[in-house]
Amino acid sequence: MTTIAILGSGRVGGNLATALTRAGHRVLVADRTPGAAADAARAARIVINATPGAGSLDRLTALREELLDKILVDVSNATTDGPDGLPADLLYPGSSLAEQLQRALPATRVVKTLNTMLYPVMTAPATLDQAPDVFLSGDDPQAKGTVHDMLTELGWHPDWITDLGGIETARATEAAVLFVPHVIRSSGFTPFAISIAR
Does domain 3-187 have CATH number 3.40.50.720? Predict the structure, then answer.
């Protein structure tokens, strides 16, 4: 059993918390109560960033000491929103939230994943009609291995998990969020994942 802290108690964080608890982990969900994020991060081996991406960098750099040598799983996308509340542009063009986090937190092992799909798919990939893909980006092979194992516990078949390489590859998956509003406007909020046909 691993202690996992989830920063963010919205739909994404709640969905992951339910699934990871069901998988047998001790899950700590940090709400907006002062000190809750620090307490949860301090107690955990793995910390999942499920906070809104536009504010994630400030929130997490404030937890530098608590995140020391932890695995930080970043599932957020940093965007500016359009009038309809859907992503309109990237907050870090030419970079990514994951790269910004790794630069700001050099003693933390950042792994980017689960950010190329609507949130229900994160924990129920087999419900899609076609096999989906999930991507891993990060500089620490051991941390990526741990996150790979966590993904399999969430229902991701190993063949569906693609290691893209270093943390700089996260800018490609984060840019894929720009597909999302157009797909939603076209097809509604039907669960989907951005995948590679092979």
Answer: yes
- What is the spatial distance between Cα 125 and Cα 122, in angstroms, rounded to a whole number? 6
> Are the CB atoms for 99 and 88 separated by under 8 Å?
no
pTM of the model: 0.96
Pairing label, strands 46-49, 26-30: unpaired
Q: Are 181 and 87 in contact (CB under 8 A)?
A: yes
Q: What percent of the chain has pLDDT over 90?
A: 88
Residue type for 16, please?
Answer: L
Interior CA angle at 147 toward 144 and 152, to 5°? 125
**Closest to 177 (Cα-Cα) out of 131, 135, 125, 127:** 135
- pLDDT higher than threshold 90 for residue 31: no
- Rounded-to-5 percentages of helix, strand, coil across the chain: 40, 20, 40
Q: Report in angstroms the alpha-carbon separations of 89 from 33, 81, 98, 134.
A: 30, 7, 16, 22
pLDDT in tens, 139-168: 999 999 999 999 999 999 999 999 999 999
181-191 burial, b for 16+ CB within 10 Å, e for fewer?
A: beebeeeeeee
Mean pLDDT of 96-111: 98
Q: Are 107 and 131 in contact (CB under 8 A)?
A: no
Residue 67 to residues 26, 38, 189, Cα–Cα distance (Å):
18, 9, 34
Query: CB–CB of 192/118 below 8 Å?
Result: yes
